[in-house]
Task: structure prediction
Amino acid sequence: MSEPRRVGLMELLMTSTGCQFVIPVYQRNYTWGAEREVKQYLNDLSRILSQEYKNHFMGILIYLEKSIDFSTRELSVIDGQQRLTTTFLTIYAIREMFKDGGELDRVQQLDGQYLTNPYHKDKIKYKLKPLVADDDVYRCIVEDRLKDNENEQSLIYKNYIYIKGYLEQLIANGYTANDILMALNELYVVCVPISEEDNAQKIFESINATGVKLTAADLIRNFLLMNLDSDTQDKYYAQYWRKIEENVSADSKELEIFFRMYLAIKTYTLVPKNGVYRHFVDWIENHRIETSVLFDELLDYAKIYHAINGAKIDSLDKALRQPVTDFRKIKSDLPVSIIMEFYRLFKTACIEADVLGQLIQTINVYLIRRSICDMDSQNISKLFPTILRRVLEKCGGNYADIVAVLNQEMVGNNANTSGSYMPTDTQMFDILFNANVYKRPALRIILDRLELTDNPAPVDLSKLSIEHLMPQTPTEEWLEELDVDEETYMANLHRLGNLTLAAKPDNSKMSNQLWDYKNDVLKSTGHLKMNMDLLSVSKWTIACIDARTKMLIKRICEVFPYPEVDVSATQAPDIVDEKTGLKVTVAHMFSSATEVRKNSAYTTENGERGYVLLNSKMYPEGDKEKFWFGYRSSRFELIENCKEHYCVLICRSKTTLIVNLPRTFIDGLKDGFNTSIDDAGNIKHYHIVIHKHTDGKVTLLQSKPYLKKIDISQFVVAEL
Result:
């Protein structure tokens, strides 16, 4: 790296003979606004003219210097493109003023010394090469063709017009163009030239750490393009990057999701959002993939991403239309990686379209059943990349049974877990019968599918909305009609059986009207299949809601069926199951305690002590038995009024080992535990790892700053 130097803006350009400042395609667009940054730039210039400032520091200009030949150098701007581009626009505005005034010798002086390389007639004739997106407008300015500009919304154009108007006002106030040019040289920057031997990407990352943050997609684009020569950058940008943006999105956040999913496919791990760039770089450097090969693959996956998320449904294979429609309605990024890779198998003729449709619908069913039962998606946030790995390993290149393999890995092997299982038909009835489902995201997806399934004359779903048969406002007439109190009314209001689809105008008509009127409206517009059974109901009652809820749950289970899977494979036959472990623990410790939340929290009768229960099956580890628990302080909110807090660890192997740890004991050690981090970098939970040794001793593992085993045998309550 050469020594930094302080230089005025005019001197910078005058001493850059044979050089071209290149704004690389991986840089941000030119974003300065006329009334914001450009106005501040010109106000600083004005203060120099009025001698309020003697000089003024404009910032740092960092560029990567590359020699093209003996007379030509390319200065690839890493930091400072906004002020540098604005400086060129300012000088071109002065040039136009000289031209309009007939001072053609002055025009030639600006061209020959500051704006162009007069001895070069090729592509480096002009000393600034702006971003591709700005190039057409900029060329109109530098080639005196402003009348040919067709993009008056361009910031380059808007700022040029603003600058010209501002300078004309300075002239009207008595300053000359020469005064303005001399003042420009009193605006100075500190130039930091770096060479190809320096790590330009690391420098760029350091700059990004202190300035306006770039997204992971911005940094990845820079990483892929920065070390290429300018021509190759332009080629790859047009041939690959622009097409990736066209298929995914030009929005950096959406691109970040795409790269996160690409990494999940390649590593079978869902990296944190704040780690996408670093993990991408690590993966590329470890695999040493040629840039063009990598771009080819990224573009292929971008086209798949578009098919899944953005392509017109009618453009997809017929077998994919309904599954993809449902998937888009679910609005979840979680399974995007596994669906993308399954789609790649289809594109490479490894599976047929109908198989891909079944795979996507299998994932939809899993998500929809969990969503309508209000199950936490956080529990499955990292599940799908792992399932993808297992499915591909089990198939081993033969995809004849891939749907069955996916069902087993996603549903069967998670059937006995507490966080990632898919509700069975029985569980659906138990969970949904009395549930408030009105605000659950899957409700509209389910009602739409129930309406469309086996419907020879489907309606336009966009014209429908969810209607409460028993209205949301409990009027006196409705309370009297049902012969219930308001509490009972509200408890049944948002149940599945009280909800249906109706045309939006009908919904407005029905409002809070009594059943007879509502039913007449439904009869007059009896074009909805799901409402046909309602037409024969003479009076709407709580019993009707019960019956319709059962019927709809049954229909949901038929339309979104539970697959045939082997659930026995998920639990070793000699390990106590979760329900039994809870049952024996509660019977042993809490027979006379107060239940705060079933199987989760208890207090003693006098409220002095509170207990939170955590459950783990045994994982063999050498000659030891290992148990793992996720510890969150938020769990204790249920018992926050108790004076003493305890965490009961239920360790299930052939027996049930019960360990009762005081919260104060855990909190004193938790900084030494491993942690799980959310996408924002915050701690989600601490990892409590328990070992039961062959001699019966029970230890707690600390991992930081070094591995340490703490004997907690004194806290063992019983082994049953």
